Amino acid sequence: MGRDYYELLDVSRDADAEQIKKAYRKVAMRYHPDRNDEADAEDRFKEVTEAYEILKDPGRRDLYDRYGEAGVRRGAGGEPPFGGFGSFADAVEVFMREFGSGGFGEFFAGGRARPGPRKGSTLKVSVMTTLEEAATGSTRKLRVSVMDRCKRCGGAGAEPGSGVVECATCSGVGEIREVQRSMLGQFVSVRPCHVCGGRGQQIQDPCRDCNATGRVKDDRTVEIEIPAGISSEDYLKLKGRGNAGPQGGPPGDLIVAVAIEPHERFERRGDDLILDAPVTFSQAATGADIEVPTIMGEARLSIPAGIQSGQVLRLRGQGMPRLRDAGRGDQLVRVHVWTPTELSREQREAFESLASIEDAPPEPRRGEDPSFWDRVKAAFTA
Fold it and tell me: Which of 30, 122, 280, 368 has minimal Cβ neighbours within 10 Å of its Cβ?
C-alpha cells in the first residue's frame, strides 16, 4: 500500500495550499539532519518533501486523490510522471526554493555548515528506437561526451603530491553567512564561498591536466536498457552517469530521452495499436477468418458477416506491454472493404449477376451513421 501524503504532512485531506505549505515547513524543520540525529532523518526529510511536491500541485494532487501514489508516478491526463528525489540535496533545493535561504538560517547558528564539492550537472541525450524494440525491450550502447574525473589528480584538482590550504575567506567552512535583522526577527542567509566554490580549501599547485577543476572532457560508451512498453513520452534516468562534479564532487545523472520511429503498419495510441486491414466484398458480406499482423507476429481475426467499411474490431492483449503495470494493451483493427480496380471476365460476369439480384443500400439518416473517428473512439471505450 502506498504512503499517505496527508498523514506525512499532518494535514487533513481538504487542507488548502497555504495550510499544506505551513505544515510542510514545520515537518521539514523537525526532520532536517542538522536538528535530528536519528538515522532515518534524511529519508524522512525527503519523504515529506515529496509529499509536499505532490499535494501543492493541483494536477498531481488530483491524481493522488484518485489513484494513490502509483497514479502520480505513472502520470495521466497530461501530467508528467513524478519520480521522487534521488538525493537529500534535491529535497533541500525544494525547501530553499519555497522559503529562501533564510528558511534554513537557524540550522547554521551553531556553525554546523556542510562544506564540500558540488554535484556534477545532469547530462541529457536522446535515442531513437523502433516500435518492435519498444514492444520487446532492448539494450543499446550510446557514445556520449562527458566531463569525467581527471585521472592525473583523481578529481582533487591539485598536482599529485601537492597540498591544499584552508580558504582564508570562509575559514574553511565553505560558506559565507550574512545576518540580517528585520521587524520579523533575525535571518541568516547562507551562500557558497565565492573564492573556494564551497570546498573550504584552496589549491596551491593546480593540476596541469584539468587546471584545478578536477575534470576533463572524455567520450564514454554507456549501455542502457530500454524497457518493454516505453513510449516517446518517457525518459530513462541513470543516476551517477552524468558529468563529474568539480574538484571531486559527485557525478550528476544521465537523462535519456526516448523517441519511437513511426511504423509503416501500426499507429500507437497509448498501450493500444491500430492496424488498417483490407477485406474483399465477399469476406465482408459472408464473414471470414483472416490472418493479420501484430507487433509480435500473426493473429487470427474473425470478420463478422455484414461488416461495414470503417468498423473497428478488437484483438485483446495484442498491443504494447504496459510500462508500469502488468499485461498488454489491445490491437484495434480498422476494416476497409477493398474495391478491385481491374476485373477479369469471370469476375465481371459474377458482379453483374449479383447486381441484378442485390438490394439497394439503405438511406443513411441523421444521427445513425457515426463518423469514422467516432467508431474508433467507441472501440477504445468498449
Answer: 368
